[in-house]
Amino acid sequence: MPDGSRAPLGLLVLEDFLGESTAEVGQVVVSPAARVYEVDGPGDWLELARRYPSDVTASRRHDWYRTTGWTGRWVLPDWAAVAADWDGVHVSVATYLATAGRLLPLAPEGGAAATLLAGWGPDETWWLTDAATSAGSATRWTSLRDEPLSWTPVPSAASPD
């Protein structure tokens, strides 16, 4: 990155970089009472899928078969059901590296089904309720297309060049 700048981790580790060239990044304040489900390994992801199952076979079978070879039923957590018990779900870096894109069979508890951690980034939290709220203004970032490590902050109008 130019001049030793440090971009937010979420911009540098996009799972599917699609050539985005702008982003806004801001801080959030998380309620001290927030209930966050920690995904600290493949077993924690499996537990979410078993406890809150949503059949996603029709929408995922084609792509996930090409990745895993699995021809059975696909299950992901039902996020509305998860939100009844948890405010957010956090996937650690280690879990992401060990689990993303890996076929995770639900059997025997889940029958002939499997799940997959997909669409997440390392050290990412999905907030399912309003337990996390925006804290102040966001910073705009820009990058060169096709160069996902080129993120630099855009100076605000009040900042000198």
N-to-C series of helices and strands: HEEHEHEHEHEEEEE
| Sequence of strands across the biggest β-sheet | 3-4-7-6
Biggest sheet details: 4 strands, mixed
* Tally of DSSP helical segments: 5
Tell me the overall shape.
globular
Helix proportion range: 10-25%
Distance separating the two termini: 18 Å
Overall mean pLDDT:
86
Which spans of ≥5 residues are poorly predicted at pLDDT below 50?
Answer: none
Q: How big a fraction of the residues is strand?
A: 25-35%
C-alpha-based Rg, rounded? 18 Å
| Total number of strands | 10
Structural class: alpha+beta
Seen as an oligomer or otherwise, the chain set is single chain
List the helices and strands and how they pair.
Blueprint: H1 9-12, E1 22-30, E2 36-39, H2 42-51, E3 53-55, H3 57-68, E4 73-77, H4 79-83, E5 88-91, H5 93-99, E6 104-105, E7 113-115, E8 124-127, E9 132-142, E10 152-153
Parallel strand pairs: 2-5, 4-7
Antiparallel strand pairs: 1-9, 3-4, 5-8, 6-7, 9-10
Describe the model.
The protein has 161 residues and is of the alpha+beta class. The chain is built from five helices and ten strands, in the order H-E-E-H-E-H-E-H-E-H-E-E-E-E-E. It has a four-stranded mixed β-sheet. A three-stranded antiparallel β-sheet has the order 1-9-10, with no helix packed on it. A three-stranded mixed β-sheet has the order 2-5-8. Strand 6 and strand 7 (113-115) form a beta hairpin. The longest helix is centred in the middle third of the chain and has 12 residues, at 57-68. The radius of gyration is 18 Å and the shape is globular.
